[in-house]
Design brief:
This protein is of the alpha+beta class. Helices cover 54% and strands 20% of the residues. A hairpin with a 2-residue loop joins strand 8 and strand 9. It is elongated, with a radius of gyration of 31 Å. The two termini are 26 Å apart.
């Protein structure tokens, strides 16, 4: 019996039990779809964050009041950061005065706020910075303006809102010049930003920007989370980095980290790649479960068709013929499930792309497809071998 005949018999056997075959494929479908969807989310988020940081320019430094392990040493990436005392506005002013090669020194603080307009309300992230914040934030104004120096000095209650906030509070009107309440206090909307999308820290469009002095008053804290330093020339980035350390190390000692854009991208890529592979591995477990389901069904099929196998062997079918037939059946189930799973995974990634950035990568599709094929072979071999080893006399007498 040739391969074509084995394939024809396998197709007929699978088609004879449509519901059981569909349920058998379900585990593979879910596994393949999960792998593709989760990898697409991980890759899409990574691309979104990388693009955001690259859009800030290659001449930007991030200064943290803690020691962050950026190497791969014994503790691996990150390790527990050594926390020191937080920055204050005075530290940013000192850097501004002592860094001749920096075009902007921006202290950044953050908090959470309840924004309300009439009966509409929502919780948002508040970002506070100086008037130079527009030089380091990636948000693009869609209308209005950024706050100015006099508003920072006066801790003015002015706010520029993200696209999500604008759509929620001002769905049919221009927000510029109108007033909203933030944590119960009245703020004037001076601008709004165009749609940006998600990032590692969440929905950037659900952020609002206020003067850092205003935010500190609102939050009741004068701490600064991070200082962003923009070098006047990208070629001087190492010089500015050394100057930052020289100015701040006398006060903060080892509890200080100054990272360039390349370092930041490298760290984020390492973290996000690890996360993506972990998600793919978790999703891959469901593929193994689906494979076990295939093996169980094939074992049941062997038991149900024992007499058929005996008749075929009695009329001359070789061990190889029986083995190939059942392996083909298992591969058909897993490959069909893999193809349907790819369609569901890619479709799911497209469906949620409006909410979460997603990118379906060819490697994830290829891995999911070939892994599903491997599942069919691996979990189909034992039932096929068991079927091929049946004694024809015993099989013929099986009821």
């Amino acid at each position: 019996m040739n391969f074509v005949e084995s394939f024809r018999i396998a197709v007929r056997a699978v088609a004879a039990n449509k519901v059981r075959s569909a349920l058998t494929m379900l585990g593979v479908i879910i596994g393949v779809a999960a792998v593709i969807l989760l990898v697409a989310i991980g890759t899409g988020v990574q691309g979104e964050i990388t693009g955001t940081i690259e859009g800030l320019g290659s001449n930007l430094l991030f200064v943290f009041p803690s020691q962050i392990n950026t190497g791969g040493g014994g503790g691996g990436f990150g390790g527990p950061p050594s926390q020191g005392k937080p920055f204050k506005l005075a530290d940013a002013k000192l850097l501004q005065a002592r860094l001749p090669d920096a075009s902007a020194v921006v202290p950044v603080a953050s908090g959470s706020g309840q924004l309300r307009l009439g009966n509409r309300s929502g919780r948002s992230t508040l970002m506070g910075a100086t008037e130079q914040g527009a030089q380091v934030f990636s948000a693009t104004l869609g209308g209005g303006r950024h706050y100015n120096r006099s508003e920072v000095d006066a801790a003015a209650r002015v706010i520029a809102i993200g696209y999500t906030i604008k759509s929620s509070l001002f769905p049919d009107s221009d927000p510029v010049g109108q007033y909203i309440t933030v944590n119960g206090q009245r703020f004037k909307v001076i601008g709004w930003y165009e749609k940006q999308g998600g990032s590692l820290s969440g929905d950037q469009d659900n952020q609002a920007y206020v003067p850092i002095t205003t935010l500190q008053t609102l939050m009741g804290s004068n701490d600064v989370r991070i200082i962003m330093v923009k070098a006047a020339d990208a070629t001087n980035i190492d010089l500015v980095k050394a100057q930052v350390k020289r100015v701040l190390e006398p006060k903060f000692g080892d509890n200080l980290t100054v990272m360039s854009q390349d370092q930041t991208l490298g760290i984020l890529s390492t973290v996000l790649n690890t996360l993506t592979y972990m998600l793919a591995g978790i999703a891959g477990i469901s593929l193994l479960v689906g494979g076990i389901g295939i093996m169980n069904i094939m074992l049941v099929s062997v038991s149900e068709r024992t007499r058929e196998i005996g008749i075929r062997k009695a009329v001359g079918a070789r061990t190889y013929d029986i083995l190939s037939q059942f392996v083909i059946e298992a591969m058909m189930l897993s490959l069909a499930g893999g193809i349907v799973g790819i369609a569901f995974g890619a479709g799911g990634a497209w469906a949620i792309s409006a909410v979460v950035p997603t990118t379906v990568t060819p490697w994830s599709v290829a891995i999911a497809f070939f892994f599903s094929a491997g599942v069919g072979v691996f979990f189909g071999v034992y039932p096929a071998w068991k079927a091929s080893q049946l004694d024809p006399i015993v099989a013929l007498r099986y009821e």
